[in-house]
Amino acid sequence: MNEKALAAALSADTVYIQSAMHGHVSNRPEDVEAIHSRYDTLRAEAQPQHASIALIREAEKLWT
User: Fold this and answer.
1) How far is residue 12's CA from residue 14's CA, in Å, rounded to a whole number?
2) Which residues make beta-bridge pairs with 25?
3) Which of 7, 45, 49, 61 is deepest in the core (most CB within 10 A)?
4) Alpha-carbon dihedral of residues 4, 19, 55, 64, nearest 10 degrees?
């Protein structure tokens, strides 16, 4: 699916689910709720961008 087709297909009540094998667009309420819930959890646990960059730079120093 190209970007324009994907953007046209997606709405607040639709999600795009991608795996290593394929992508899938779903508007099933249980899929939409599950994906929104997972992303909300990820956002809540994520470090601020500047903290993530600092952590990556520290890790880089250890590996070089």
Assistant:
1) 6
2) 16
3) 7
4) -100
